[in-house]
Amino acid sequence: MIKNIIFDLGNVIIKGTHSDIITEFAKSEDERNFIKDNFLKSPEWNLMDLGRITNDEAIIEIQKRSSEEYKNLIETALHNWFKSIKVNEDIVEIAKKLKSKNYNIYVLSNMAKATYSYLKTIDFFKICNGIVISAYEDVKKPNEKIFKILLERYNLKPEECLFIDDDDTNKSYETANRLKIQGRRVEPNSKDDIIKLLNEFNINI
Length: 205
Hints:
Layout: E1 4-7, E2 14-15, H1 18-25, H2 29-40, H3 43-49, H4 55-64, H5 71-80, E3 86-87, H6 89-100, E4 104-109, H7 113-119, H8 123-126, E5 130-133, H9 144-153, E6 161-164, H10 171-178, H11 191-200
Parallel strand pairs: 1-4, 1-6, 4-5
Antiparallel strand pairs: 2-3
Helix pairs in contact: 1-2, 3-4, 4-5
């Protein structure tokens, strides 16, 4: 029997894709390619999610290997990209209904400290029973260690947990299911697919 619902944040509770970041800050094709290759695919992006470097440290490192023309773009994008993130209110409403039906709500997400610090005051977090963010744990999904941190910290039985994540590599679900956490991948930002998943586990809202 499912008692605990575990939500990812990106493309589930919050909206904000790599394409959105590129569109927001790039004014030309060259800038779009630069952001994609030197920001979104950079080792610094991964290190921020692991909590090993700050935004400011990432800016310095990326600027070191970039030409002068991109230095302002790097600083602007890294300092501001997460400020354009929007909350997916439809899915937050689902979470609130689940909470009202006595399901426990948890978060398991890969996210940098700066991003979480910006978002942590949103109403959704007020209904959460527990939150695990990669940057504070020095480990990311799909590593099973971060799943075990969540389970052990909040004394959860994996078979009583339903995991809601949009990971299109399916690696997070392979790890979760191997640990006997229930669930499957959902479509990004899809209220309907989340409702469908809940119904698959006889959870009606």
